[in-house]
Amino acid sequence: MNYPKLKITFLGTGTSSGVPMIACNCAVCTSHDKKDKRLRSSILVESAKTVLVVDTTPDFRYQMLRAKVGNLDAVLFTHPHKDHIAGLDDVRAYNYFQEQPMQLYANQMTIEGLMREFAYAFADKKYPGVPNLELNTIGLEPFMIGDIPIVPIMVWHLKMPVFGFRFGKFTYITDANRIDEVEKDKIRGSEVVVLNTLRKEKHISHYALAEAVALVQELGIPRAYFTHISHQLGKHMDIEKTLPAGVHLGHDGLVLEL
Ligand SMILES: [Zn+2]
Ligand SMILES: [Zn+2]
Question: Are 105 and 142 in contact (CB under 8 A)?
Fold first, then answer.
């Protein structure tokens, strides 16, 4: 089967606080460079027939408006941390125009988190107008959304299993600091990988910059973009200059076609 052509849009590339961070006056947070403005981490994945988003960040509403996403078929979730789920209520707009429930795909732990955090949307007696959500539990087996085949990849966020996703030649991983060898094999052979990189200094649950660069080289992926970036990393332009060939910082609005 031929893999459909995909357009990937980086909707957000910031860590949980976003960049700028509220009340911060550091050089990054006060930078005038548009690439130093980072909403919370998410991507849009589009084929000719199917549109899906990975995670619904606290910035989800603005991300959908900014990228002019007129139709959305599904949401894939990586894990239930607030910066990856908080915007879910705003799928109501798609419920309204598409007249159907939004299809959510997540592992069991994330589904439990969604049901806890958005209990009102899963209540037996719902208040009128709450989001209409349909839960689809995924494991590590490959699955399809519309015409897009997807391979889940389990990575570690300290002790929490987080799902990354491989879409053909493109792999998206956020909120990891360790990957088991068997899961690394699922990433090998990708043309493009996205990895989370928080800052230069080591962190307990995120890859530091040098760790992410080393992983890209270990896996032999020719092109990489980093996401989930903190204001602590430095200005986009300054860090970009220090990276090896083929390795880049992501930025909001970046589009890849593959
Ligand atoms: Zn996160
Ligand atoms: Zn700052």
Answer: no
